[in-house]
Amino acid sequence: MKALILSGGKGSRLYPLTYTNAKQLIPVANKPVLFRVIEAIHDAGIDDMGIVIGSGENGRKVRAAVGDGGRWGVKITYIVQDEPKGLAHAVLIARDYLSDDRFVMFLGDNVIEGGISDLIREFETSDYNSQIVLTRVAEPKHYGVAELNPDGSIKQLVEKPRQPKSDLALVGIYMFDEHVHEAVRSIKPSWRGELEITDAIQWLVDAGYHVHPYIHRGWWIDTGKPIDMLAANSKVLEELTPRIDGFVDKDSEVDERVTVEPGAQIINSVVRGPTIIGENTRIINSYVGPFTSIYHDCLIEDAEIEHCIMLEHSQISDVDARITDSLIGRNVVISRSELKPRALKLTIGDNSRVGLI
What we know:
Elements (H helix, E strand, L loop, with lengths): L1 E6 L19 E2 L2 E2 H11 L4 E7 L2 H10 L8 E7 L5 H7 L1 H4 L4 E5 L2 E3 L4 H8 L5 E7 L7 E5 L5 E6 L8 E9 L2 H8 L10 H10 L4 E5 L4 E3 L3 H14 L7 E2 L4 E2 L3 E3 L4 E3 L2 E2 L3 E3 L4 E3 L2 E2 L3 E3 L4 E3 L2 E7 L4 E3 L5 E6 L4 E4 L10 E2 L4 E4 L1
Parallel strand pairs: 1-4, 1-6, 4-5, 8-12, 14-17, 15-18, 16-19, 17-20, 18-21, 19-22, 20-23, 21-24, 22-24, 23-25, 24-26, 25-27, 26-28, 27-29
Antiparallel strand pairs: 2-3, 6-11, 7-13, 8-11, 9-10
Helix pairs in contact: 3-6, 6-7
């Protein structure tokens, strides 16, 4: 089998962080989401992957970050999508790469519990023409939604319905054989002007092909918004095996759910997990609370932070108020200011300067 990873979106819901970087490269528990997708696919036994990227700066950044796939022992082929014309359009333009091979299509900004090895194994050993992954969600109108027949087969798929007939959402993991290529050539653009993968799957159903719905019982998160990034970060932090590879001085209190990466220093501070402190980061006279990821080469001094993601080369110093529920970009400086008020809840883009009381 092959894999097709979609990594071409602009990530507008994550502005300003994604003005300067692809959303798939934002780290969850100090590892870019796209890297987690590649590892999940590789763990499932697939080492031939195509990545669909945009033609602009974000696409170039994905190429630079992922390279040829050698670090994971996989082969990467890049497929450029000039405009975001839909998931089915991505399959259409990847035709030469995919050939007639069976493949899994995985959205590059999704995080799922448990990986996909069992899913791939089930599809490989079956006579299914397609397998889609569904999960129950609270607000299905924001997703592609599947309505099932009483026998569990697929009745209808609708993309972002105004009045959903089901709470079963497509989670962004799809498996296909060669018949999907006829499907994506046969459908028309939706009202959004995109070739919808839900329409292509519906075409397969209507044509009598075997599309198997797999209902995922664990957690799944589309990391499209800041609140979703923080939720995914919390889930993944809970799955880490904690380790202390950096330095913790005798005056610090670090609990057993904390990961301290090589070169990191924790000095006269309290760190409570699940939390990860990145390489060469320094925590001095500070408090780092649960569900926080501090990336590499950061500084937190005389400050408190909790339930946050902080990206590389950023610093927080001499801040009285605790920072919570925030995404902090690259090369950000947060320090004391004489202005008020004291309440803090932040989504801060790269290369920013923020003065705080």
